[in-house]
Design goal:
Strand content: under 5%
Oligomer: single chain
Largest sheet: none
Number of helices: 10
Structural class: mainly alpha
Number of strands: 0
Helix content: over 70%
Number of domains: 2
Shape: elongated
Distance between the termini: 50 Å
Length: 203
């Protein structure tokens, strides 16, 4: 199965989604077509498995890198790290298989609305890792509310850009704007004026 996913990823990356066929996969992986069906009854099921692995690796890398940040690192730097990993991953997925991305986004919306509960969703893990790594900078008194808002912002906004304005994902200021917003959500304490922290983050 790993050989099939590896071969499928190489075809997607080098030749595009249209090139991913049973015959091409069989030749590249050295696996008989009949055997491919035993693991992946459709090409869609293979693509889903490939991107599940892709996201799992990115998730592990993200949490590890947040945990390994130097003691002098600030929360805003941690947020930028999160976006530096997450946004390119999202853009890459859209480029490799937009149709599958759209279908996956429908599932993501069920996650966002709390209608399904995946075990380890990357945006949930990223939010928790940030809040655990920078506890002194998270000033929001209602931490549950702050976590809720950050989680949904990370999940929904980049996905909306990927679906409707994919060019935004490549624009340098996108990560900066998102980072400032997430930073404000985590560092604005109860009773603080909105304008004060917003101005300080914008400098």
């Amino acid at each position: 199965m790993d050989a099939l996913k590896k071969a499928g990823w190489e075809i997607l990356e080098k030749e595009g989604r249209d090139a991913l066929s049973l015959e091409r996969l069989s030749v590249r992986a050295g696996v008989a077509v009949s055997s491919i069906y035993e693991y992946f009854p459709t090409m869609e099921s293979l693509v889903v498995a490939i991107f599940d692995d892709f996201r799992a690796k990115a998730r592990r890398r993200l949490v590890e890198e947040i945990q390994e940040l130097p003691p002098s690192t600030k929360l805003l730097d941690g947020i930028m790290l999160l976006l530096d990993i997450g946004i390119p991953m999202l853009h890459r997925w859209v480029q490799l298989d937009r149709e599958m991305f759209v279908k996956s986004s429908q599932y993501d919306e069920l996650v966002r609305l709390d209608l399904v509960k995946p075990d380890q969703y990357w945006t949930s893990m990223a939010t928790d890792a940030l809040m655990e790594r920078f506890p002194d900078e998270v000033l929001a008194r209602n931490r549950a509310k702050a976590r809720f808002m950050v989680f949904h912002a990370i999940l929904a906004l980049p996905r909306a850009m990927a679906l409707m304005r994919p060019e935004y994902l490549l624009e340098p200021d996108t990560k900066v704007l998102l980072a400032r917003m997430l930073h404000a959500l985590l560092t604005t304490g109860e009773g603080d004026s909105v304008s004060g922290p917003a101005r300080s983050c914008a400098r």
